[in-house]
Write a structure and sequence with these properties.
This protein is an alpha/beta fold. Helix content is about 35%, strand content about 20%. It is built from 19 helices and 23 strands. The strands form 5 sheets. It has a 9-stranded mixed beta sheet, with helices on both faces. Strands 5-2-6-1-7-10-11 form a 7-stranded parallel beta sheet, sandwiched between helices. A hairpin with a 4-residue loop joins β8 and β9. α5 crosses α6. The longest helix is centred in the last third of the chain and has 21 residues. The protein is globular, with a radius of gyration of 25 Å.
Length: about 550
């Protein structure tokens, strides 16, 4: 039977429950255990698919097409395994399931209540992954903060499971904050005491406290926290601020978080942790040999979590190239023909990010034109690819009013059009083209060189596509569709063969990038940016150029 670890949070949000859960799972995995993580979110949306990125960060899409919380991206990046619909559950999904059962008459006329019906459904889903005989340990992150009204049913479900499951099969970790008051020059434990007290009042007693802190916790402070919060001193774990999230597993290993969990869960069959690849990645990340500057053209740049997977993919690809990737955010709304050279002239590469809606579209098109005409390495993802298509149609094919029907339903040249199966859909949630789809790659193309394969699968999240009515016209003008979906004929990849590096993809390669398997497109994009940087540097330094010759 699988063991269950629940991770709750207190004092404040954004302490990093997902990173702590992913780090612990990574350590357990490194010790030879089969571990997975699931996220329970307290909001009433059925999934994050209809949420504005400003509200909740990016929407992460799994292999099976589930629109999920961005923490699932961390889970996959750390564990190097796929998650699924079962790994992310919201209050909305719980209530939807219970209400559907009530409508079917499944409760035989009983009054449907939060307890036991809602909590029973929460518990069922909490235990679901553990019943598959695929995992030794299932970690469950409870979203929100203890004390939030919307989190109460989840906390109650954990309380019931603490009582129902054998003591050695269930463990609760509470992540909390130990603030440092600069004026007093001391760490304060009172917020943690109150947070644990509130959790205990709800019937849940934490086994381990992980304390986020800016300053080190001495043994005296740990003993004080342990005494007042009713845990053992060795169960008070310091979680200091890290320079990168990828250091956290090693920090937790130094604090012996994994060993404490193994002991409490009575797991004896484990090995010494194998983290050589992880440490090698960190060495390359911390000690790069070169540096490139990449422009990220988007419309949600005020919130970094809106492009979380893209930014993490740059970290993975940078380490692979032993190169520091400095990302410069450029808001597409403020790019014009007059200032584009000033805004993009110092870049070594340009990535036009995905998004929805018409805001900032013209700025993205101007940016693509600059990259195409100046030999700047270009990479477009989803909407970014569509902007490359529109730009080429307008400025090379001379289709001046070419556009996407998403922005202009009456465009005379709809080079980007809504997919046929999407035209009759009125419900927005979960109705896009979602999840992994196959793609056949043209032999000898840039995409072929990047992937080293003629057949791949990548994850999608879109409603609009390249309009194949214009495909022949584009290809006659040198714009190559190098990747095609074999079943639908959908154009997946476009590229310009005579450009140093110009590629756009309809799918989202950033969703499959992990520490151990960086996304090939990102790896080659950063390599092209390095080459562009070297070329520019040699032009600025004639002496170096002559030495190179």
């Amino acid at each position: 039977m699988a063991k269950y670890i629940f991770v709750t949070g207190g004092v404040t949000s954004s302490l990093g429950k997902g990173i702590i859960a992913a780090s612990l799972a990574k350590l357990l995995q490194a010790r030879g255990l089969r571990a997975t993580i699931q996220k329970f979110d307290p909001y009433i949306n059925v999934d994050p698919g209809t949420l504005n990125p400003y509200e909740h960060g990016e929407c992460f899409v799994t292999e099976d097409g589930a629109e999920t919380d961005l923490d699932l991206g961390h889970y996959e990046r750390f564990l190097n395994i796929y998650t699924s619909q079962a790994n992310n559950v919201t209050t909305g999904r719980i209530y939807q399931t219970v209400i559907n059962k009530e409508r079917e008459g499944a409760f035989l006329g009983k009054t449907v209540q939060v307890i036991p019906h809602i909590t029973d459904e929460i518990k069922r889903r909490m235990l679901l992954l553990g019943k598959e005989d695929k995992y030794d340990v299932v970690l469950t992150e409870i979203g929100g903060t203890v004390g939030d009204i919307e989190s109460l049913p989840f906390v109650e479900a954990v309380r019931q499971l603490q009582w129902e499951l054998p003591e050695e099969d269930c463990l609760v970790i509470h992540l909390t904050l130990i603030p440092y008051l600069k004026a007093a020059k001391e760490l304060k434990t009172k917020p943690t005491q109150h947070s644990v007290k509130l959790l205990s009042e709800n019937g849940v007693h934490p086994d381990i406290l992980v304390c986020r802190t800016e300053e080190p916790l001495n043994n005296e402070l740990k003993r004080k926290i342990a005494q007042f919060c009713n845990v053992k001193p060795d169960a008070v774990i310091e979680a200091a601020d890290a320079s990168t999230i990828y250091e956290v597993p090693l920090m937790m290993m130094r604090e012996k978080l994994d060993l404490i969990c193994l002991k409490k869960l009575n797991i004896t069959n484990y090995q010494e942790p194998e983290l050589s690849k992880w440490k090698g990645f960190l060495d390359k990340l911390k000690y790069p040999k070169s540096k490139v500057t990449i422009g990220l053209i988007g419309k949600y740049i005020e919130l970094q979590d809106a492009y979380k997977s893209i930014l993490e993919s740059f970290i993975h690809a940078g380490a692979m190239n032993e190169c520091k990737v400095q990302v410069v955010n450029v808001h597409s709304e403020f790019i014009t023909e007059e200032n584009v050279s000033e805004k993009l002239g110092s870049l070594d590469g340009l990535l036009v990010a995905p998004g929805f809606g018409h805001r900032g579209i013209e700025g993205k098109i101007i940016a693509v034109q600059y990259a195409r005409e100046n030999g700047l390495p270009f990479f477009g993802i989803c909407l970014g690819m569509q902007m490359a298509v529109i730009e080429y149609a307008r400025n090379v094919l001379d289709l001046k009013d070419a556009h996407s029907t998403e922005m202009d339903p009456k465009a005379p040249y709809p080079v980007i059009n809504m997919m046929e199966e999407q035209k009759k859909i009125r419900m927005m949630g979960g109705t896009m083209r979602l999840g992994a789809y196959p793609c056949e790659i043209k032999e000898g193309s840039l995409a072929h060189r990047i992937y080293g394969d003629l057949s791949i699968t990548e994850r999608h999240r879109h409603r609009f596509e390249f309009n194949n009515d214009f495909l022949e016209q584009f290809e006659q003008a040198g714009f190559v569709a190098s990747g095609i979906n074999p079943e639908t004929g959908l154009v997946e990849i476009v590229e310009l063969p005579h450009h140093p590096f110009f590629i756009g993809v309809q799918y989202h390669p950033e969703l499959k990038s992990t520490v151990e398997r960086p996304a090939p497109l990102f790896v080659h994009f950063i390599a092209a940016a390095k080459q562009y940087n070297d070329m520019r540097y040699s032009v600025k330094n004639p002496l170096l150029q002559s030495e190179m010759i």
